[in-house]
Amino acid sequence: MTTVDALIVGAGPAGLAAATYLARFRRSVLVADAGAPRASWIPVSHNMPGFPEGITGDHILSRMREQALEYGATIRPGAVQALARHGEGFTATLADGGTVTARAVLLATGVVDHHPNLPGVERAVERALVRICPICDGYEATDKAVAVIGHSDKGAHEAAFLRTYSDRVTLIHVGPPGDLTERAALAELGIDVVETPIQTVHIENDRVIALCWNGEDRAFDLVYSALGTSPNAELAQALDARLADDGRLQVDLHQRTSVPGLWAAGDVVRGLNQIAVATAESAVAATDMHNALRRADGLTL
């Protein structure tokens, strides 16, 4: 059994930023790394502060891991399979059978993207031909032919957002007809709407060619998936933590969940799914965790 001041569940930008802060607060920190964080899918980010030339997701993660390790954090591969109350703290069961007791826990478990059911979609995401965040990289869609795949009005809203950058936006609605209610608004914006499942997708010469409706071929420079996400909030749910309507965790201004001793940061918390936001939330959470531990030790100043 390993005992630490702070257990961080998740080794994406949120978890690694918190690890650096807590280690610099001279806390014993263990990061449980389940592997393949969402940020690793980023081909090149051009809106990461401080990197005007762009930076890959893997490079972001490797630099953040190096920084956390430099100050003494421990990063252990493997997912946390269960999290339970243990006195004033918690006990976590890891995938390798190990057990960790922690006085405080930060959940930085993120979300799972609902990718379109397309052959080779992972490779297309890696090549930035299929994208999942117009806030991150909508600028790169400027004046390009863009398709948005959606199954509800979320797809309509994303298509409308992308009209900021291009007047060649098509919404491919793959859900029930009744789930798309914004047809008139889309028409007013000049957004073409195609209501059909996508049957076949080919990637040729850095363009996505979808062969999907009545034998018609349509070529796009970029395809955005607006199919939503599912939060990785099961550990918190088992502790009866309060959830938002979308299933993500509700937290206060210090990133505290409704469970004492349990904090959360990053995409698993409702809000804007951005690395800059995740790391800021982690800074807030880690500082509050450290101060809470000080108070628990009887330090009142």
UniProtKB/TrEMBL annotation:
<dbReference type="GO" id="GO:0016491">
    <property type="term" value="F:oxidoreductase activity"/>
</dbReference>
<protein>
    <recommendedName>
        <fullName>Thioredoxin reductase</fullName>
    </recommendedName>
</protein>
<dbReference type="Pfam" id="PF07992">
    <property type="entry name" value="Pyr_redox_2"/>
</dbReference>
<dbReference type="InterPro" id="IPR050097">
    <property type="entry name" value="Ferredoxin-NADP_redctase_2"/>
</dbReference>
<keyword id="KW-0285">Flavoprotein</keyword>
<dbReference type="InterPro" id="IPR023753">
    <property type="entry name" value="FAD/NAD-binding_dom"/>
</dbReference>
<feature type="domain" description="FAD/NAD(P)-binding">
    <location>
        <begin position="5"/>
        <end position="281"/>
    </location>
</feature>
<keyword id="KW-0560">Oxidoreductase</keyword>
<dbReference type="InterPro" id="IPR036188">
    <property type="entry name" value="FAD/NAD-bd_sf"/>
</dbReference>
